[in-house]
Amino acid sequence: MLIIGCDFHTRYQQIAMANDETGEVLVERRLDHENGEAAKFYRSLPKPVRVGIEATGPIHWFERLLAELGHELWIGDSAKIRAAEVRKQKTDERDACCSRSVFPKSGCPPRASGISGSCSGIATSS
Predict the structure, then answer these.
(1) What is the pTM of this model?
(2) What is the pLDDT along the chain (126 residues), one digit of tens a residue?
(3) What CA–CA distance (Å, rounded) separates 117 from 119?
(4) Which one of 16, 52, 79, 121 has the lowest number of neighbouring Cβ atoms within 10 Å?
C-alpha cells in the first residue's frame, strides 16, 4: 500500500509518498488545489492509498475526493504529530514526511466517509 503524508493548506498541499512495505520514499512534491493538480494526482493512484494529515481547517472537498476514489483518510492531532519527530525547523516538507512516517504506527483509525471527528493522539511506539 502507498502511504502519503500531507501537509494541507488552503491553496496547496505538500506531500511525501512512500511504499508501506519497503519504506522507500517515492514522491515528495507540492500539489496545487485551484488548478486541479491535487485531484488529478490522487485520481492517478492505484487503490487503496492511505493519506495522513494533521487536523486542519476546511477539508471537506478533499475528504469527498478520497472517499470517491476509495482511498483512506487518517487525521491526527498536529501537535502530537510534530512531537513525534525531532527536528530543527518547521517546514511543509518535514511536516509531510513526519505525517507519512507517523500515521502507519499511530493509534489513529481511518476517518470514515461523511463522519466528523479526528484522532486525539498519535501513538509512536514501534
Answers:
(1) 0.68
(2) 999 998 889 999 999 999 988 889 999 999 999 999 999 999 999 988 999 988 777 888 999 999 999 999 988 877 776 676 665 555 666 566 555 554 555 445 455 444 333 333 333 233
(3) 7
(4) 79
Q: What span, in angstroms and rounded, lies between the C-alpha atoms of 31 and 35?
A: 9
Size of the chain, expressed as the number of residues it contains: 126
Report CA torsion sign: 32, 38, 44, 50.
Answer: positive
**34 grid coordinates:** 485551484
Distance between CA atoms of residues 33 and 61, nearest Å: 10
- Identify which of 43, 36, 45 has the alpha carbon closest to the alpha carbon of residue 13: 36
